[in-house]
Amino acid sequence: MIRLSQKGWNNFMIYTVVILVALFVGLPEYLKQVRNEPQPQLISATQTLLALHFPQHQIERAGPNWRSQPAALTEEQLTVLLLHWQQAALPEKSPLDPMNPVLVTEVSVWLTGKPAQQQWQLYRAGEFYWLKAVDTDLWYRLPEGQADLLFPVVLR
After folding, report:
1. Mean pLDDT of 4-27
2. 103-145, pLDDT tens digit by residue?
């Protein structure tokens, strides 16, 4: 057995606890980065987008094509918008809610396999845009420019 003084054993215990805390806190974060887990998507890859209902505009699937009522976007702009919605990665949820958010717009997203629509709201707080999942009451800070891709100015 190792012979240590009282002070030596105290130091040994302190360092052991510090190392264990570092392992329990840091190891899951490290493994998450190493595995390169894909970020969750706004729309699951197993679901198909059926419609986007903005307050003043409805975008719906009409057979293989899409239509916007009233017609605010060209067919090319519709294709780009829908591609962004289908491929957008959901940012990590924010541990804090934004301070003094101002509602910019909202959208109802209709998907296959879902009995009800998903509700998303776009807020502006300071210089950042925030996306709120109404159903789960979770806040996500959007990366620079993603708000304009998902919520074009003509649809707000």
Report:
1. 90
2. 999 999 999 887 788 999 999 998 899 999 998 888 999 988 8
SS3 63: coil
Q: 128-132, long-range: CB within 8 Å, 24+ apart, which pairs? A: 128/98, 129/104, 130/94, 130/98, 130/101, 131/91, 132/101
Q: Which amino acid is at 1?
A: M
| Residues near 139 by beta carbon (within 8 Å), at least 6 away in sequence | 93, 94, 96, 97, 98, 130, 131, 132
Sequential DSSP letters for 100-136: S-EEEEEEEEEETT-SS-EEEEEEEETTEEEEEETTT
pLDDT at 146: 92
- Count other Cβ atoms within 10 Å, centred on residue 87: 12
Amino acid at 24: F
Across 138-155, average pLDDT: 90
72: CB partners within 8 A, 6+ apart? 57, 154, 155
pTM to 2 decimal places: 0.72
